[in-house]
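Re: that backbone. Tokens:
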């Protein structure tokens, strides 16, 4: 692991942007996540710029000569060595005492002065099912005698989603409509979903792609990932229950997915890795999903939190309430490298900007569940909020917030920001 950690991770390094030096800051100088933004002063038609978040500000990379133009795909496609060199240049330029401070300060925008957008142009979107505790809990609701299908521990399960409906954090979306069928009904009915849910996920962003017909080996897989975002794959559970056999999710999933606006790079995550292991008695991965580096540091040590703020809470000035808190390390049965290796093993060509969802990352404890389907046991056990309201599934006006961060002794805390969305009728 030490080979992947350099001066940019030094917890003693400080920035001349003072807000980046606060202990609870999501975007200290050790993070430097990438995204796209436009100044509010330019209006909604102003072209998007490539920026890096630092404290409560954003650095315009083109304005300081670190990128040529505003095509994020060019940045995503950089070889690992060039990515590290770019990160080092940004870190040095933003450091306390930097000779570039006067010049770079002119290229800084306060977060309140900008509008964020999708951090990159999303090509294809694939959603996996790596959360074994989620898969088991959901399986028990529908198949008590066989919660996990026989293939689950052998192959990373996934399906192709819809990239056109991926939204940036802060974007409202309409409650979906579709066909549903009540257990006691003879025929299905059509109307708004009554069992709207969220799914707590990570989204892995493909950087450098591969040629059609040329699989990516697991030892090279992470070189093809630029970083990750928070991902909420909103789900209409009643629509899903009626439509998912035999081909899997469709309209229950493709109406909206929300991601955070800043891509935390794989380089920034280097201090927060954990070994990949299999529980005793479980099958070991097939050779194409097995690698030394993946064994040593394939898992990600990321805390993940879900919060809810209802319309009534918002109108009363009540802060969002936590629904769950867990860690991706305890939830994911497959690593990011294994997802890339499996996705491409048949010759599938991944491209810069492709998005790979982890699937719902629920922990082993009930209070670490990553969906209301689990927290309410399929709607049978409503959640009572501090103000007395109850929820089995999401209601109109509800705002759901995902947050994530990494913290470990000997490293600076870094955050993923948040993925926030509000349901409207």
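Recovered sequence:
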């Amino acid at each position: 692991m030490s080979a992947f950690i350099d001066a940019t991770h030094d917890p003693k390094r400080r920035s001349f942007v003072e807000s980046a030096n606060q202990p609870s800051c999501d975007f200290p100088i050790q993070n430097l996540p990438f995204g796209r933004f436009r100044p509010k002063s330019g209006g909604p038609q102003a072209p998007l710029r490539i920026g890096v978040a630092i404290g409560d500000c954003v650095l315009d990379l083109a304005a300081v000569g670190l990128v040529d133009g505003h095509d994020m795909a060019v940045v995503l496609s950089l070889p690992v060595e060039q990515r590290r060199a770019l990160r080092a240049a940004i870190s040095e330029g933003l450091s306390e005492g930097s000779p570039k401070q006067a010049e770079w300060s002119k290229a800084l925008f306060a977060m309140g002065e900008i509008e964020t957008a999708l951090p990159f142009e999303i090509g294809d979107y694939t959603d996996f099912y790596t959360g074994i505790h989620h898969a088991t809990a959901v399986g028990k609701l529908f198949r008590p005698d066989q919660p996990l299908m026989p293939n689950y521990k052998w192959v990373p399960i996934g399906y192709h989603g819809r990239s056109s409906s991926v939204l940036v954090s802060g974007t409202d979306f309409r409650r979906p409509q579709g066909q549903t069928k009540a257990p006691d009904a003879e025929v299905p009915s059509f109307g708004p979903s009554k069992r709207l849910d969220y799914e707590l996920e990570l989204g892995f962003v493909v950087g450098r792609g591969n040629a059609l017909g040329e699989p990516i080996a697991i030892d090279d897989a992470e070189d093809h990932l630029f970083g990750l975002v928070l991902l909420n794959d909103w789900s209409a559970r009643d629509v899903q229950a009626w439509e998912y056999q035999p081909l899997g999710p469709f309209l229950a999933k493709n109406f909206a997915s929300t991601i955070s606006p800043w891509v935390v790079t794989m380089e920034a995550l280097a201090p927060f890795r954990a070994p990949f292991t299999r529980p005793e008695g479980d099958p070991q991965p097939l050779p194409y999903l097995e690698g030394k580096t993946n064994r040593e540091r394939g898992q990600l040590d990321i805390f993940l939190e879900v919060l809810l703020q209802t319309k009534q809470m918002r109108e009363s000035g009540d802060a969002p309430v936590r629904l769950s808190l867990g860690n991706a390390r305890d939830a994911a049965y497959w690593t990011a490298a294994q997802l890339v290796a499996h996705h491409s093993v048949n010759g599938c060509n991944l491209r810069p900007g492709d998005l790979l969802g982890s699937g719902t990352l629920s922990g082993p404890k009930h209070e670490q569940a990553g969906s209301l389907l689990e927290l309410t046991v399929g709607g049978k056990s409503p959640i009572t909020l501090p103000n007395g309201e109850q929820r089995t599934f999401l209601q109109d006006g509800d705002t759901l917030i995902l947050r994530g961060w990494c913290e470990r002794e000997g490293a600076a805390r870094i955050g993923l920001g948040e993925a926030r969305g509000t349901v409207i009728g």
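The chain has a mean pLDDT of 96. DSSP finds ten helices and 26 strands in the chain.
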